[in-house]
Automatic annotation (TrEMBL):
Gene that encodes it: LOC100780513
Pfam family, one: CRAL_TRIO
CRAL-TRIO domain segment(s): 82-242
Gene3D superfamilies linked: CRAL-TRIO lipid binding domain
Top-rank taxon, per record: Eukaryota
Name of the protein: CRAL-TRIO domain-containing protein
SMART domains reported in the protein's UniProt record: CRAL_TRIO_N, SEC14
The species this protein was found in: Glycine max (Soybean)
PANTHER family (alphabetical): CRAL-TRIO DOMAIN-CONTAINING PROTEIN, SEC14P-LIKE PHOSPHATIDYLINOSITOL TRANSFER FAMILY PROTEIN
Amino acid sequence: MGLVSQDALNQLQALMDQVLLEEEPLQRTFQNVHQGCVAETLTRFLKAREWNATKAHKMIVDCLKWRVQNEIDNILSKPIIPTDLYRGIRDSQLIGLSGYSREGLPVFAIGVGLSTFDKASVHYYVQSHIQINEYRDRVILPSASKKHERPITTCVKVLDMTGLKLSALNQIKLLTIISSIDDLNYPEKTNTYYIVNAPYIFSACWKVVKPLLQERTRRKVQVLQGCGRDELLKIMDYTSLPHFCRREGSGSSRHSENGNENCYSVDHPFHKQLYNYIKEQSRIHEAVEPIKQGSFHVDFPEPPAEKAEIVKTLESELHKFKISNENGD
């Protein structure tokens, strides 16, 4: 770490020590954020604010207040019930943990192209997304850190674009909410984004969006050929490859005959462990407060200016495609 970044870290640490001393609720939720990796956590927020300690301090405090106001610390004790509803969400919000990189980073697979988000309200999908974030940060990453005897605070994401269509336009609002929550409250948690199975529509959209991204974000995105198997095998074993990367041209699917292979499936070990963990936490909390049916409502943040511009550009590009298709060009 350079002198400038170390100075920024020291300055941010001093600012946080002061605010946490004065506000105990923020101190409690900050413990769930850093999980013992305080310096690494502060560094993430500094990176997100270009090493400006004052801006990073405001970002962390806003994040902690959002967590307290929305009771994020309790979200892992709020199961999505009944089970059929949860299964519907898993079938339409395709995400799962396929394994770990050789460096010990969790590998999350995301079916961008085939996720439909049409089985529940926006609030349920946001609840599900935050629960996976919190389970990653409070259970998966601390466990990986313990196993490798060093702080592991980020993950790898493999984004499958199979099936990406113009109908993606209908999902932009929800995806903007989810990505804004991540940008503001879970910054710099992804080490690298690998894009696989990219159709022409993605390539065209990426061309116009890429220049709008900050340099640190652009460096994280790697667009791989085909299913990306050969490139991904350089950083992970075959057993950790997402199911849609295991055979060239195999593509992706919502379902697989073997739930152990399809990391999106509610029957995959990751989702079984996650759901069982949430149910167990709910039983612990039930003595204090009975579990209610219904989604866990979270305040949706306004997207950052950079995000708003990207969304506007993306919508414009997709509209052009739509018009072009309708005209038969």
